[in-house]
Amino acid sequence: MAYVFEPPAQPSVAVANSDDRLPVRRIFCVGRNYAAHAREMGKDPDRDPPFFFTKPADAVVDSGETVAYPAQTENFHYEAELVAVIGTGGRDIAEEDSLAHVWGYAVGNDLTRRDLQLKAREQGRPWDWGKAFDRSAVIGPVHPVAEVGHPDKGAIRLTVNGEVKQDADLAELIWSVPEIISILSHSIELRPGDLLMTGTPAGVGPLAEGDTCKVEIAGLGAIETAIGPRA
Fold first, then answer.
1. A Gene Ontology MF term for this entry (predicted)?
2. What's domain 13-228's architecture?
3. How far apart are CA 229 and CA 126, in angstroms?
């Protein structure tokens, strides 16, 4: 058998303190997982069942790279997020067993074409054009659990050109990492290389050409993204 054209390269993210790369299979994102952010998006933060959207694996961008201001938007937003990386797959995972399936954690930035997302939401349509565009998932180096444990509290902070825009604590997550893993696994089989972007705190806002966006999470370091000219 031969492919009719060359298969795409395997998307991957960096591993902290290593030359190794971690292959990315899928990217799952949790919507409105901090109460204050739910309120700023005009939604009730009650603990309803979580909902998910996805990004393509090849949307990943390493820290330090420049991301062009994307096409078809006039309201391009940052979203600081904790990323959990699955290392052992499974389905119907019990919540108490969930953390055994995590390989490591990273700092993430869920870049969003907010105007397209909100228009789709108003029309009852999928969020893909607002969330799943090229180079929309900035993912920092993944820190193995053996080195950092399982972060469930600590600062998560985002700055734009040095000005603090988001400043919260991981303890404020509505749905914890173990709960997210268990809930997802009862719907979809998780496998190694699945990335879970766990939601963003309040304070989301716009980026402009020439901006530098930095995200920090206690114990996981920082990532930085420069915003280039419009694509």
1. metal ion binding
2. Alpha-Beta Complex (3.90)
3. 27
